[in-house]
Structures are given as structure tokens and as C-alpha cells.
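Checklist before submission:
- one chain only
- standard amino acids only
- sequence pasted in full

Submission:
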Amino acid sequence: MNSALFVPDGYVSRVVESAVRRALAAAPMVLLEGAKGCGKTWTGLSSARSKMMLDADANDLALAQASPRPALSEGPSPKLVDEYQRVPELWNTLKGVSDEDRNPGRFILTGSAEKVDDITRHSGAGRLTRVRMRPMSLFKTGHSNGAVSKLQRDLPDRRA
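Returned file contents:
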């Protein structure tokens, strides 16, 4: 399913990508959840075949606000809807579109770690699979060689 169409330069693959692929095969919508800056957008882009960048593209935002259903229908699946919570009406439209066509792998949603009120009330059961993301380790990002520092090695073992 990884199309590599939108993989940003410098993207480091993540262990969670296999969970995203499984989720895309199981449900119409996949919601990537996690702390700000943990790589939700880049991970979503790595599996997307089309995209709607509501935080980065003013045209995408305007289209989603004016005509959410046609905006969601443009382009092949899976479609990344980045920062979906910027257009609150979009959640109900996504649910409706997913009810009409239950094929798996239609949408990848990314957004803030805060729960959007409609999603708290409407779990997305039967339509949505949530994938929890965590930040990568410094070793995985290349900012550490994984070695234990001399200071750490010289400290007494206090596990006893």
C-alpha cells in the first residue's frame, strides 16, 4: 500500500507503519493519534495516494469548508486529511461518506492530540481504526549512537 508518492525528503520509516497498513486494510478511516511532532503527518503521507493539507494549504482548507464532500472525493485512496479538526463539519461528512462506501483504506486522518468534541461523542465504531503513535527514539532518528555514557556506566547499580 505504500505508494511513496508523498514521502518527504529525510523521512525515517517507523515501526508503526505496519500497524497503519493493517488498519487501512480493516476500516474505511484510520486516525493517527499522538503527541504533537511525533510524525503523524509524515507517516500519513507515506501511505497516502492523495492528500488534503488543511493546515498547510489555504486552497485545501477553503475547499473543505465550502464543499467537504467533493473535496473528500477528489483523488485516489487512501486520502490523507491532515489536521482534519480544522473543519469541524468534516467529521460528519467523513462518517457519511464511509457509511455509503465501507471499502477499507479510504482515509487517513491526522490532527491534534486533543479530542475533537464530535469524535468524543461519535466514536467512529465500524468506520474508524485508531493507531497510536509515539515519538521516535534519539537512536532511531540518528541523534544518538545508542551507547551508554561513561557517566552512566560509572554510577552504582541501585536496583538492589
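Reviewer check: The chain has eight helices and five strands.
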